[in-house]
Amino acid sequence: MKFKEGDIIKHYKRDLVNEKEQDKNMYLYKVIAFAMHTETEEEMLVYQALYHPFKCYVRPMDMVTADVPKDRFAKEWHTRLQEKVFELYFKEQ
Question: Has residue 1 been placed in a domain?
């Protein structure tokens, strides 16, 4: 899945929190930009949390598009969890 600036993405842990936490936008993020590591030229995602305190983060794209570690969440996997660490939640027009 290719994201673009402005897209709202969700981390797989959003599927594990209760409805009250989901109402606070827990584990929802806005894609701010794409960047390149100056030393390795690795593609990075710059994103901002949509929950307090609205911090910005940078993560390598390989980690963003990695599969969810199914062994850590075996009980939840078959009913609740998404396939990738981050997936599209809302697409910017």
Answer: no
- Contact at 8 Å (CB) between 65 and 56? no
Instruction: Tell whether 3 is covered by a domain.
Output: no
The CA-atom distances, in angstroms, between 25 and each of 17, 18, 48, 78 are 10, 11, 12, 24
49-76, pLDDT tens digit by residue? 999 999 999 999 999 999 887 776 656 5
Q: What is the DSSP letter of 83?
A: S
> Model's pTM, two decimal places?
0.86
44 close to 34: Cβ distance less than 8 angstroms: yes
Residue located via tokens 């290719």: 2
* CA 89 – CA 72 distance, rounded (Å): 23
Domain assignment of residue 39, given as a range: 8-90
